[in-house]
Amino acid sequence: MPITDDAIEKIKGMIVSGELRPGDRLPKEADLAAQLGLSRNSLREAVRALSLVRILDVRQGDGTYVTSLEPKALLDGLSFIVDLHHDRTVLEFFEVRRILEPAATALAARQISLETVDALRDHLAKVTDESAVEDLVENDLEFHRRIAEAAGNSVLFSLVDTLCGPTIRARVWRGLTQEGALRRTLDEHHAILDALAARQAEVAHALATVHVAGVEQWLRKAL
Q1: CA 76 to CA 131: how far, in whole Å?
Q2: DSSP-derived 3-state class of residue 223
Q3: Distance, CA of 65 to CA of 146 (rounded, Å)
């Protein structure tokens, strides 16, 4: 195993074992290197690598800390990778969305509050089929984001939130070129919300699947 990889594994082991917890400050470099049996150079490289994936936070003049390790922070690295893809790979993101978003919608249907349902109705009322495509897409993103949040699973929410980004261009493109796309999107949103309000988890799952699949199928034909 390369020396830097070994150093990364040893630091990760300290976090997994609970020896280092979220928010903890790492020991001084010289002390930690001696404790782990590493050179200071390999330790520095490991710390640099772990800071890039948001596991460690290097604070100039203050030391190095374990981050919150919240899913959203750890998935920021995935978000960077996602943002790099604008070719046919976007279809793969739609495929993953088609798996995750309906699952999140079904979970939300089982526990969503009346206050959240009312807030979502107010949110959808902000746009009509006369709205600009960009406004509709922004409304769409926030609608699905709030539903994923209502599912009550922070990992699932973070994955859905991260994977929505690369599909924005495709949604705008569809809205500009496919006749009736805006009205269809609004109708599908209201149908999903009605299923959520009625706590019909299976119906909500099916409607969300059709909603995401509609854009995916259009894109497959357009590319």
Answers
A1: 31
A2: coil
A3: 31
Would you give the distance in Å from CA 9 to the centre of its chain?
Answer: 26
Which residue is listed with tokens 């330790």? 43
pLDDT tens digits, residue range 40-64?
A: 898 999 998 888 778 889 998 889 9
Q: Rg for the chain (alpha carbons), in Å?
A: 22
pTM: predicted TM-score of the whole model, two decimal places:
0.65
Residue 104's pLDDT is what? 96
pLDDT in tens, 112-155: 999 999 999 999 999 988 888 888 888 988 999 999 999 999 88
Distance separating alpha carbons of residues 105 and 144, to the nearest angstrom: 8
What is the pLDDT at residue 141?
86
Torsion of CA 184, 189, 194, 197, to 10 degrees: 180
The encoded tokens of residue 210 equal 């059709």
CB atoms within 10 A of CB 37: 9
Whole-angstrom distance, CA of residue 99 vs CA of residue 84: 22
User: Which of helix, strand or coil describes residue 221?
Assistant: helix
Bridge partners (DSSP) listed for residue 63:
59
Place of tokens 């600009």: 132
CA–CA separation, 207 and 106 (whole Å): 10
pLDDT value of position 137? 84
What gap in Å lies between CA 76 and CA 53, rounded to an integer? 8
Residue 66 CA to residue 56 CA, distance in Å, equals: 5
Say how far apart CA 117 and CA 169 lie, in whole Å: 28
